[in-house]
Amino acid sequence: MIPLTINIREVYSTAPDRDQQFIQNLALFLCAFLKEHGVLLEKQAVKNQFTNALQYLVLISDVDDVEIFKICLEYWNALTSDLYK
Q: In whole angstroms, what separates CA 26 from the centre of its chain?
């Protein structure tokens, strides 16, 4: 639905509320899904999809919205904590 080449930050700033809500919900979904199943995705033959999900999350993390930033920050904190352990 959203190509990885798109500038989500720019799209978010000019998008209607419905599209902004979609991006926020996408961030929530990706963070929750990757927290629960990220370890399995790393080990399975779907590493390409795992990498794409992380790339989407990087793009969404760049959005200028405090709530979305908090959502993404929580996942990045969990990921780096797991990597450190």
A: 7
What are the domain boundaries of the chain?
8-84
Helix axes 47-61, 66-84, angle to 10 degrees: 140
* Tens digit of each residue's pLDDT (9 = 90 or more) over 21-66: 999 999 999 999 998 888 788 777 777 888 889 999 999 999 999 9
What's at 72, amino acid-wise?
A: C
Q: How far is CA 69 from CA 17, 40, 56, 66, in A?
A: 17, 25, 13, 5
* CA 31 and chain centroid, separation: 6
